[in-house]
Structure formats: structure tokens, C-alpha cells
Amino acid sequence: MDTLAHLMAGLTAALSFQNLAFAFVGCMLGTLIGVLPGLGPAAGTAILIPLTFNLDPTGALIMLAAIYYGAMYGGTVTSVLINVPGEAASVITCIDGHEMAKQGRGGTALGIAAIGSFVGGMVATIALIIVAPPLAQIALKFGPPEFFALMLVGLCLITGLGGGSVLAGLIMAILGLLIAMVGIDPVRGAPRFTLGIPSLYDGVGFIPVVMGLFGVAEILLGIQQPRRQIIKADLASLLPSRAEWRRSVGAIGRGTGIGFFLGLIPGVGSIIPTFVAYVFEKRLSKTPERFGHGAIEGVAAPESANNAYANAAMIPLLTLGIPSSPTIAVLMGAFIVNGLTPGPFLFQERPDLVWAVIASFFLGNILLLVLNLPFVGLWARILHLPYPYVCAGTLVFCLIGAYSLEQNVFHIGVMIVCGIIGYGMRRIDMPIAPLVLGLILGPFLEKSLRTSLEMSAGDFSIFLTRPLCLTLLVLAAIVLVASALRLQPRELQEASTS
Amino acid sequence: MPTSGSKALKWGWQVACLCLLGIFVPALVTSLGYSLTDALGPGPGFFPFWLSLIGAVLSAAMLVQVTLAKADESSAIGFALDRRNALRAIGVVIALAAAAALFEPLGYRLTMLAFIIGVLLILGARSPVAIVLTALAGSFGVFHVFYHWLKVPLPIDAFGV
Questions:
Q1: How many Å lie between the alpha carbon of A296 and the closest alpha carbon of chain B?
Q2: Nearest residue to B92 (alpha-carbon basis) of A208, A147, A220
């Protein structure tokens, strides 16, 4: 009942003209980012943070959340029309979506993707409303040792399930944590690793680092990628035929379920739910040979999973303060920029804000459906925008974002350096996600570790004598060892390496 | 991490491992200068010390693993850099650095006007009208939106531009 009252209050706040406008602008910008090849949701959300610097926190977070799930949908357009995923989660949609476009069914592919995304997003948001408050209540009982262990589990999951080398992932997570140590020590007030540079006393800004690692690095990589030919899609018929509906309904339901449950696990990443949904659908089909040749289920299932994942991934962030992916970490950074710390206490301290943001997910999903079906032609036309202009526009936003955070040119320098590092890491396929997660969780992880040790007067056994903490630490160790030994289900392994 | 791959990729990983060691080892030495423990328990150097130590050991292990990996030239194509595009990428980085240096002395609008024109030319845009219009929109237009509408402070030079 309490939840319902909060939700109603949140809906009232989200339905205000101002917040509705923020959600609308966020959905438009997010879809635009998703549509532009080479600019993923993490980079897109990061470079658009400066737009929200002077908005009230509720409006800012509603807009950034809308940018996030808008970008998750927008990638579909490029997957279908030019066989290039706008973001990683849309990789699998290329297979059947682009085949449908080549057969003159591009409009139907985009239509079912929009409908599947809508269903996935709505169902996941309802589940979020049911799951989040009790989970936040449980998390309120956690002490610093449990939070430390929980963050460690999150980092291990991201390192282990992210694909690639576990050793490299672990090193990147440690590097992220170490970069987070730069600045004034939060407990004692002593400067660390500041090299005598006053701009480093407040630490290395998360936003310039993310803009560099994702925004600038993606631009530098994009320069070297050949442009693809755009298929002129028949967008007249967006709605599937009756037979296509029959095949899609089950796929959308199953995709939603898979996306939601995998979204609850930090580190799974957006690509794995879509891949699992696709493989599951193909195995279940009586005619698996149609997959890869324009099967509508091959678009419906992964797209539903993608949006269900996007909404479900907010649960660990809002209830536990654990970001599931780099994009969610950027959103967490936006919370912190606005003076808010995501986690169970936020439900107690700012229920107005949390519930307005959650309620805005409903409106965002409706807005996305309304925007995406009639405006598919517009998004398709944007694909014709020459890359140099996309590149210049993105860099302008990166420069503004890095500078305006503290009106300091030093942060632009940090962004450029991180851009070069991010480019190098991408070239050799070194994982970036653990670094970003380490960077954002570093201060919280250190604080909870040191507070725990202060509680026990420096005795490490505090982590072993509390049952929940011990369980979480054992879980973290299992995740790491299992990942190192590659003990994952076959679908997850295939998705991790694809 | 490559267990096999082109020589260039292997070289890239080796350089990355050395860079990581170049971060972790100095951090380890520096963290020894901070107190590891104090009256309340762990000190400011406790977390950085252990992170640097573990990071350095793992980086060294990865360097050994990469060095012992086989090199296979058949996979070199994907890693190869196209010279013209590489020069373009370097040009963009130089333009960014120049923009950072001029951002406050010249103000946002003039810096961005020059930056956008420069980046577009570097990336091969050739339509003068489109270049000028984009540069004007990205400099004066964006300034108006951010500075006046969104109240985001952007630098203005001594002449008010």
C-alpha cells in the first residue's frame, strides 16, 4: 500500500509538464545516440550529463534515465538498416533484422523491435516496483562489512562475466580502484597521489574519465571504420502480419523474462541477455533454419530482452548502490554529481526523487513507443548524416561536459588522456568496464572496508564472523574462480566472446 | 588477452602490461609514504598499498603470460592501422589539445569555431557551406543554448566573445 502511494506520488511528479518534457527530450536524444553508429549508451549518457547540470535532481535523473533506455532502443535502427549495431546489445538484432530489411521487411523489423522493447520495458518496470522496496529494506540491515562484501561481489561479477581475460579484467578493476584513491583521503583528510596538482585534490573526475574512455575513444575508433551502405527500408508497413504476431508473442514474453532476470545480476552486461534470448528462441523453434534468414522472433526476443534488461539493471543500482554496467555506472555518476548516493538509504531519504524516476520509466517506455513507430523514417534519415559532422558534434559535447563540471580546463586534459588510453585498450581488446566500475565504486569500497576495520579495531575476522558477509565473500571467490576456469553456461560463454 | 595472435597485437599487450607496471610500481612506492595503519585502524596508505601490490604482481604475471604466447601473423589484418585514418585520429587529438589550451584565453565561441572547422577538415568534410554552418551552430548556437538557456557556465574571453 505504501509502495502504491509512493508510486502515485512519483507518477504525479513525473507527469508534471517539466519532467514530462525532460523525459521526452531524453528519449529523443537517447534514440539519436543509439542511432548514430559508434556512439554507445555509456558515451551518450556521459556526454549529455552537462545538459542537466543546472536542472533540479529529479528532472536531471529523469532525463538521463530516458537517454539511457532511448539509446538502448536506438541501436536497433542501425542494426536493421545498415547491419551495424548502434550499441553492443543490438549486435544480435543484426542477424535477422538486417535480413528482414534486405527482404523489404525493414519496417516490420523496426516495428516489432519497438513493440518488444515497450513490452519488455513495461514488464520490467512493474517487476522493479514489486522487487525494489523489499530489497532496499533488506539492504538497510547491512553494515559496512556486508556492503564491502557486496561491492566486491559486484566487481567480481563484472570482471568475471564481462568476457575476455579474467586476469586483465581484474587488473583493470584494481586500476580503477587505485585511480579512485587520488585526492583527499575521505576518512583522514590526507592528500594521496595528487602530485602537487591542486586540481587533483578533489580526485580524478569520473565524468571526464568516462567521456574520454567512451566518447573520445569511440570517435577515434570510428574514424578508422569503413562506412556501411544503408538499405532503403520499406517503412510503410511497421506492424507485423497476423502470422508474424503469432510467432512474436511468445518470443517477446520469453525475451522479457530472460532480460529481466539477467538484468538483476551485476556484470552480465547488455549483450548477454539478448544473445541468450536469441539462442533460446532458436532452440525452441520448430523451424530453427529460418533463424539468420529474417525470422521475426530473432528480432522480437532479443529486443524485448534488451529493454527488460535495461530497466531491471536499475534495481541493483537503486536498492544496493551497485551499478551493473558502465552505462549504469555513468548514471550512478550523475546521481553523485547531483549530491545523491544511490542505494537503500535513498529510498528513505529521497523517496520523492526515487519514485518519480521509477514512475518516469513507464512514461519513457510509452514515449519511446510513440516516438519510435511514427518517427522510424526520421531515424533512418539520420543514418545518412556524414561521420565527420557526428564526430565534431560529439567532441563539442565532450569538451563542454569535461570543462563545465568544475569550470576547469584540467578536466579536458584528463578526458583527452583517457580518450587515448581508451582507444589503445579497445585496439587490443582490453576490458574497460571493470575499470569504470572500479573507479565509481572505489571510494565506497574503501570507506566500507576502513569503517569495518575501525569497528573491529583492525581485526580482519569481522569479515568472517558475520554470516551474510562471509557468504558474499565466498560467492565473490566462486565467481572469480569459476570465471577463470570458464565454468559458465554455453550460452553465456558464447555471448561473452561474441 | 591473446594466447595467440599477431605480433602487433602481442606487442600491444606487452606495452600495456609495461604501462600498467609503470603505474602500479610507483603507486606502491608512493603509498609506502602514507601511513598504513593509525590509532583507528587502517590508515590512508592501507588500501592504495594493497591495490598497488596486487596490481603490480598481476601485471607482471600477465606480461609473462603474453610474452610466452604464440604469435600468429594470419590474424594481423584486423589489427593493422590504415595510415590515412591514423593520421586523422592523431589530428583530432591535436585539435582537442589545442582547443583545451585555447578554451579559456579565447573563450568558448572562437575556440569552438576554429575547432569544428579544423576537425571537419581533418576528417575529410569538403562542403564549405556545411562546414561553416556546422561551425557556427556548434560554437555560437551551442553557446547560446548552454550559457543562456541551461545556465551552464562556459568561458568568455576578455573582449566578451
A1: 32
A2: A220
Q: Which segments in chain A show pLDDT lower than 50?
A: 489, 491-492, 498
pLDDT(B50) > 60? yes
Spatial contact of B69 and B10, defined as CB atoms under 8 Å apart: yes
pTM of the model: 0.86
Q: Quick one: which of A63, A436, A30 has its CA closest to A269? A: A436
> Which DSSP string corresponds to A429-472?
T---HHHHHHHHHHHHHHHHHHHHHHHTTT-TTHHHHSHHHHHH
pLDDT given at position B75: 47
| Contact of A65 with A26, CB cutoff 8 Å | yes
User: How confident is the model at residue A9, as a pLDDT?
Assistant: 93
Burial A175-192 (b: 16+ CB within 10 A, else e): bbbbbbbbbbbebbeebb
Contact A361, A65 (CB under 8 A): yes
Contact status, residue A76 vs residue A113, Cβ threshold 8 Å? yes
HSE value, Cβ hemisphere, 13 Å, CA-based, for A233:
31
What's the pLDDT score for residue B77? 45
Residue among A175, A192, A224 whose CB faces B55 most closely: A175
Contact A171 B59 (CB under 8 A): yes
A456: cell is 573491529
Are A181 and B100 in contact (CB < 8 Å)?
Answer: no
**Cβ neighbours around B61 below 10 Å, total:** 13
Rounded Cα distance, B131 and A423, in Å = 26
A360: left (phi over 0), alpha (psi -120 to 50) or beta: alpha
Helix (H, G, I), strand (E, B) or coil at A191: strand
Q: How many CB atoms lie within 10 A of CB B4?
A: 12
Say if the ipTM goes beyond 0.85.
yes
Is 90 exceeded by the pLDDT of residue B149?
A: no
Instruction: Closest CB to A428: pick one of B12, B99, B124.
Output: B12
**Helix (H) / strand (E) containing A486:** none
Are A322 and A438 within 8 A, CB to CB? no
Gap between the Cα atoms of A283 and A277, Å rounded = 10
CB A42 within 8 A of CB A210: yes
In this predicted model, what pLDDT tens digit does every residue of B55-83 receive, in sequence order? 999 999 999 998 988 766 544 445 556 78
Q: For chain A, how far is it from start to end, CA to CA, in angstroms?
A: 45
Check residue B76 and give its pLDDT.
Answer: 46
Tell whether B112 lies on the interface with A, counting CB pairs under 8 A: yes
Instruction: Find chain B residues with C-beta within 8 A of A405's C-beta.
Output: none
Query: Span B2-14, mean pLDDT?
Result: 75
Q: What residues does each domain of chain B span? A: 4-79, 83-149
Q: What is the DSSP letter of A184?
A: E
